[in-house]
């Protein structure tokens, strides 16, 4: 058992050859697949560094990107609202979102 673990420690790539992911995934190839299947990517980014990338990815897939300020007092509520509204919009459209806003007082 020790020698098997040591082998993976030395060459971590050897582990992946026995799985269904033997070659590294290409992020642009994956993004094109999301676009092709019309799967929107909703993304949150922290700081300004990754903003352009996440906005580009979300725009390409008809998703949305928002900066996430995890230190804000209402950070968890804002994240929850975004997720819930996205799901409700997909399930029942603007009417479901309006009902949620009326019931919970979010914007």
The average pLDDT value, as a whole number, equals 86
Structural class: mainly alpha
**Shape by Cα distribution:** extended
Please tell me how large the radius of gyration is. 20 Å
Q: How much β-strand is present in the residues?
A: 5-15%
Order of helices and strands: HHHEHEHH
What is the rounded distance between the termini? 56 Å
Verbal overview:
This protein has 107 residues and is mainly alpha-helical. It has 2 domains: 25-68, no CATH class; 70-107. It has helices at residues 2-10, 13-16, 27-36, 51-60, 75-92, 94-104, and strands at 43-45, 65-67. The protein has a two-stranded parallel ribbon with strand order 1-2. Helix 5 (75-92) runs antiparallel to helix 6 (94-104). The longest helix has 18 residues, at 75-92. The protein is extended, with a radius of gyration of 20 Å. 2% of the residues are buried. The model has no long low-confidence stretch (mean pLDDT 86).
Q: Helices, strands, pairings?
A:
Blueprint: H1 2-10, H2 13-16, H3 27-36, E1 43-45, H4 51-60, E2 65-67, H5 75-92, H6 94-104
Parallel strand pairs: 1-2
List descriptors.
107 residues; mainly alpha; 2 domains; two-stranded parallel ribbon; 2 strands; extended
Question: Can you give me a brief rundown of this structure?
Answer:
With 107 residues, the protein is mainly alpha-helical. 58% of the residues lie in helices and 6% in strands.
